[in-house]
Amino acid sequence: MTDIQELIRDLTAFRNERDWNQFHNPKDLALAINIEAGELLELYLWKHAEEANVEKVKEELADILSFALLLADKYKLDVKQIVQDKIKKNGEKYPVDKAKGTAKKYDEL
Amino acid sequence: MTDIQELIRDLTAFRNERDWNQFHNPKDLALAINIEAGELLELYLWKHAEEANVEKVKEELADILSFALLLADKYKLDVKQIVQDKIKKNGEKYPVDKAKGTAKKYDEL
Amino acid sequence: MTDIQELIRDLTAFRNERDWNQFHNPKDLALAINIEAGELLELYLWKHAEEANVEKVKEELADILSFALLLADKYKLDVKQIVQDKIKKNGEKYPVDKAKGTAKKYDEL
Amino acid sequence: MTDIQELIRDLTAFRNERDWNQFHNPKDLALAINIEAGELLELYLWKHAEEANVEKVKEELADILSFALLLADKYKLDVKQIVQDKIKKNGEKYPVDKAKGTAKKYDEL
């Protein structure tokens, strides 16, 4: 069992013990990710990047990852595979010779 | 090397080849997570949960996970540990006997 | 007719001509606001505040305001009133003598 | 003075009394809009559209509108104008004969 599989096992066990699967449709899981992402963002509001409270960042990041893994599990996605597929696709959108050192979007390169 | 470590290695290699570390401060990574979360949410807009395009969900979910892992790496966090710590903490906020079968927030239980 | 009433009239006319009221339940309108907010945020990603494209900011801000006004209209809220009520409430959370010159949240003042 | 101008006057007065203009750069205002949008979204999480607490919706909607108006004011935008311009632009992207009764995005019409 990989560490990602282990986390999904722990998260779904937590959910199932509370009989929460009935609420966890993909749309609401997408809402949950956005809500947690907003809570993470709040830790940086009106601040410089280095001023955020790292203990709180840990918790919000954990929440985002948790709902992302639960959503991946809903669709039975292979998390490692979808991330590696996206890295490959991004490599085509952002070839090193064009994208190096610039933060421009691919359609402005 | 675990799955998570492997993904972080691939993501940071992709970033470093493009010399993008200069842009990837924690605050902007938090912005990136929110932007990608919004793109995921759009796949469910005006729709029932089961109507989303799963191929696109894969990509947006991969983007969210990628920026979340890059942010975790910035702070040198142990991803498995922070998720398991949060599950434990949530277990205290949502004890099974109170939380079972209800979607209420912990402060309304 | 006030400016706000005029905008709500124009927005609901646009919606009704397209028979979109059927999709515009409050939950999906809240999703739409988040999606547009994410698109606004993208205009600042990896950038300093003054580097955003103002023409694009106008459009994203207009989208956010439009869905916010449509949601207010769903509940028949008086937009001017709810904003002024919130200003008053925030005045109690952030009294001038405590909040002046600091970006701290009210629970940290 | 229109009602939008009146709200902007009240919001900037509140801000200035607290000497908060120093924190209110456009990028952080865009963050604030996203954070408040996430708080609005939370009121619908795991729920049907009609189950949200309307009193709380009022407050979150007021927060979103407030930061949107403050951001518009930063760029000295004419709020009524930018919304009406966007309605016109959307009319071209979503002509009635193609868009009527469908929730499809303009690039799928």
TrEMBL record, chains A, B, C, D:
GO MF annotation list: nucleoside triphosphate diphosphatase activity
GO biological process: nucleoside triphosphate catabolic process
UniProt cross-references to CDD domains, sorted A to Z: NTP-PPase_RS21-C6_like (cd11537)
Keyword Kinase: no
InterPro entries: dCTP_Pyrophosphatase (IPR052555), DCTPP (IPR025984)
Domain of life, source organism: Bacteria
Keyword annotations: Hydrolase
A Pfam family recorded for this sequence: MazG-like
UniProt xrefs under PANTHER family: DCTP PYROPHOSPHATASE 1
Protein name, entry field: NTP pyrophosphatase (Non-canonical NTP hydrolase)
Organism encoding this protein: Taibaiella chishuiensis
